[in-house]
Design a protein that fits this description.
heterodimer, A: about 300 residues, mainly alpha, ABC transporter involved in vitamin B12 uptake, BtuC, two-stranded antiparallel sheet, globular, B: about 500 residues, alpha/beta, Rossmann fold, six-stranded mixed sheet, 17 helices
Chain lengths: ~300, ~500
């Protein structure tokens, strides 16, 4: 039977594992609340992880890594925004393009710079973020703080009101004399920064360096979490924590034997969060209240 | 006195076509000025220039004698132009208060602005009568209240010139009366109101002066006290209007469709039609009047096979129709054709070429090629319909959405009526279409009746019901609250029945 210590450690690692998903989920929330569907979260996480690890490895500073991660993700987000907002491109295609650019460019740049098959050298000491409290490092606390900040900005400020209006009925926003594209660019920029935070957490905190493909679907899980959370920041925290805990439990249960069934295959345990994603999506997506104009390019009359 | 608003030679071209061509007129403070014209006459373009959404190619606008040229809606709002669009610019998921504040939040944090907006709403409520609950969510409000929110939104920004674009198109008669009351009150308070409409009776009722537009230009300006609906209509379409002559002399024929105690529920299980019985006879138009949302739509869709009937019986020519076997295809096979209320939702596919929309519902027929569609035959069929029904432009390959509302409606009427219906179910045949198309639709329906067909007509336009029907049923709350003959009733009496007043006359 699991004892209290084991539960505590699952809890701590669950929180730790959920941090990048939470960042990506909030990033998606900002973007989609403003009307830009973002399936490029995964690519931005990955690009940020690479930029962060590369910069930290070259400078030896975790903070330099963090800024590089934020910058790389922001640049991709603005590129995606240009295609989706300025050019009125299909948002799914724009997001997919970001994912493909990130997957290819990180592996290529990694191989070219470090010559280790796309990895960055392992990070040590000041090149990594280390736990400051309760087994969590500063990035995890920053991610948690972003939940409250997001909620406050979206629902208590002028910027948030306009941003939500851009996602619900951009024509109404334009008729009120506000620029829809400027509002959407702002949201997309915040989305980029949040993905940058998540990517930095992956490479500089969860792992000690970059591995090709290390985002491993977290950007897509974040999208699923966003849907269960019905685009609400508080609920996004809850659903991301649930994913993190499931992930942590899965790691612990590897090799464990279930009564009557014998040892559970590792693969089955690892697949659990993804299976849950599908079940929850199938059950919830119909009743979700997505921003009404999400995914619709806005064209001036 | 300097006019509050003056258009001087305003011209706007799209490509080579002038949507507005040298438009000049003035409107005074403390007046309601009507602008009438058919779809495409240039009214909306003119208003989009006034509210800063578009810029004029030539000419200018003066407010209180000073020339203005708005680069964006923001500039127009700042100068006191309030625009109430026909399609409301409201965010359905948000509260009334947030909608009113959007774009005029009063600071980066909402808390202070919310308090101020609440106070201003309360003040407006004192001056202009009942306001709306500031915390209500727009999606929960009826259309009339949503429109009030739009007007409040303009007033709270200090609008002195209020533009109402086809405001009554979506309102019930009672809501329209309320709106007119509010408009008169605002006028008496010194506002200048531009009332854009194509309903001539309303323009005569509420406006002092009326400017008539046709093909981008102004064709006349009238004092409502000294003109008539007929003269306005003539100016609007450029020729005398021929109201379809309706001779109701023929005796009604045999009962074609018999409905007894029909009950219909919506998908959530709420009863929408609560026991309706009616007989539809050959050679008659049976009109059903009612405020929208009182079960007429559900009744029509149930009869067309689009909705299940929860209880009750239907018979055509005396033969009962098995409730489980009813679906639109089976009803069509029985000769029940249907012109749905919402043409873009149920009548056409906006992205299909016109030829595709013109065969929907009949696409299995051999003449369209059967399993492998015969494109040439489909296009030829559509081109023939376009010629017979004067559908413009006569282009079977043009996307359905490229046609005006009137021409879309003609496409549906052609499709359904040319199939030689035994029974024609018609919902809102002239909603949002211009006068020419109204004339054509009415003439075709009367001709169909003269050919001995049975027509069930549902319309929110009482004038239409009165003009076409041989008998009128009034629905309220899912029940029939009265039956009248068009000669022996008035719009006022029907309005009372529609509002649920008990039917006292036997």
């Amino acid at each position: 039977m699991p004892d209290a210590d084991m539960l505590l450690s699952i809890l701590a690692s669950g929180v730790r594992l959920s941090a990048p998903v939470l960042c990506a989920c909030l990033a998606g929330l900002w973007s989609e609340r403003a009307g830009i569907v973002d399936i490029g979260l995964e690519g931005k996480l990955l690009a940020a992880a690479f930029a962060g690890a590369a910069a930290a490895s070259l400078t030896g500073s975790a903070y330099a890594g963090l800024f590089a991660a934020l910058g790389a993700s922001l640049a991709l987000a603005l590129l995606q925004g240009y295609a989706a907002i300025q050019r009125g491109g299909d948002q799914i295609v724009c997001g997919m393009a970001v994912n493909m650019i990130a997957a290819g460019a990180t592996a290529l740049a990694g191989a070219a710079i470090f010559g280790e098959g796309g990895r960055t050298p392992g990070l040590e000491g000041a090149a990594r973020f280390t736990p400051v409290f309760a087994g969590q490092d500063g990035l995890a606390f920053a991610a948690l703080a972003c939940v409250g900040v997001t909620s406050f900005i979206l629902f208590q400020t002028r910027w948030g009101l306009r941003l939500r209006a851009a996602g619900e009925n951009p024509q109404a926003l334009a008729a009120a004399g506000i620029s829809v594209s400027r509002t959407r660019y702002g949201a997309v920029a915040v989305c980029g920064l949040l993905c940058g935070l998540g990517g930095a957490d992956l490479a500089l905190s969860q792992a000690a360096g970059f591995l090709p493909g290390m985002s491993a679907g977290k950007g897509f899980i974040a999208l699923a979490a966003l849907i269960f959370a019905r685009w609400q920041p508080g609920a996004a925290l809850a659903s991301c924590l649930a994913f993190g805990l499931l992930d942590a439990a899965a790691i612990r249960m590897q090799g464990a034997a279930l009564p009557g069934l014998g040892p559970v295959p590792v693969q089955a345990i690892q697949a659990l969060p993804y299976i849950l994603t599908i079940i929850l999506l199938a059950g919830f997506i119909g009743r979700s209240a997505a921003p009404a104009a999400a995914g619709v390019p806005y064209k001036k009359e | 006195m300097v006019p509050a608003l003056e258009f001087i030679g305003v011209t706007k071209r799209f490509g080579g076509v002038a949507a507005c061509n040298g438009v000049s007129f003035q409107a005074a403070q403390g007046s309601i000025h009507g602008i009438i014209g058919e779809n495409g006459a240039g009214k909306s373009t003119l208003m989009s220039i006034l509210c800063g959404a578009r810029r004029a190619d030539a000419g200018h606008i003066r407010l209180d004698g000073r020339a203005v040229n708005f680069a964006s809606p923001r500039g127009a709002i700042a100068r006191g132009i309030g625009m109430v669009h026909q399609h409301f610019m409201l965010i359905e998921a948000m509260s009334v208060l947030d909608n009113i504040m959007l774009g005029a939040e009063g600071g980066p944090l909402l808390a202070k602005g919310r308090a101020a907006a609440r106070a201003r709403l309360a003040a407006l409520e004192r001056d202009h009568g009942p306001a709306v609950d500031p915390d209500a969510i727009i999606a929960d409000l009826p259309v009339g209240l949503r429109q009030r929110v739009e007007i409040l939104k303009a007033l709270i920004r200090g609008a002195r010139i209020l533009v109402l674009d086809e405001p009554t198109a979506v309102l019930t008669p009672n809501e329209t009366a309320e709106l007119f009351k509010l408009m008169r009150r605002l006028r008496d308070g010194g506002a200048c109101i531009l009332f854009i409409t194509h309903k001539l009776g309303e323009a005569l009722d509420v406006c002092g002066r009326v400017t008539v537009m046709r093909r981008g230009g102004i064709v006349g300006e009238f004092d409502t006290a000294q003109t008539s609906a007929a003269r306005l209509a003539e100016a609007m379409i450029g020729r005398p209007v021929e109201a379809a002559a309706n001779d109701r002399i023929r005796a009604p024929g045999a009962v074609i469709l018999r409905a007894r105690d029909v009950r219909v529920s919506d998908p959530s299980g709420a009863a929408r039609v609560k026991g309706v019985s009616l007989d539809l006879r050959e050679g008659e138009i049976l009109g059903i009047a009612g405020v929208s949302g009182n079960g007429q739509s559900e009744l029509l869709e149930a009869l067309a096979g689009m909705r299940p009937i929860a209880a009750g019986t239907l018979a055509i020519n005396g033969a009962a129709i098995d409730a489980r076997a009813r679906n639109p295809r089976a009803m069509r096979a029985l000769g029940v054709m249907h012109v749905p209320e919402d043409r873009l939702k149920h009548g056409l596919v906006a992205d299909f070429p016109a030829s595709g929309s013109a065969m929907l519902g009949f696409h299995r027929e051999a003449r369209y090629g059967g399993a492998l569609l015969d494109r040439a035959a489909i296009e030829a069929d559509c081109a023939a319909k376009m010629a017979r029904w004067d559908i413009r432009p006569p282009a079977p390959n043009l996307a359905t959405r490229g046609f005006s509302g009137g021409n879309q409606q003609k496409l549906i009427l052609a499709r359904e009526i040319e199939r030689d219906p035994l029974i024609l179910l018609v919902g809102q045949p002239t909603r949002g279409v211009d006068i020419g198309a109204v004339e054509a639709a009415h003439a075709r329906l009367l001709a169909l009746r003269a050919a001995g067909k049975a027509i069930l007509l549902i319309s929110n336009e009482l004038d239409e019901i009165l003009a076409l029907s041989d008998r009128i049923l009034v629905m309220c709350g899912g029940r029939i609250t009265g039956e009248r003959s068009p000669g022996g009733t008035s719009a006022r009496e029907l309005g009372l029945l529609m509002a649920g007043a008990a039917d006292t006359a036997a």
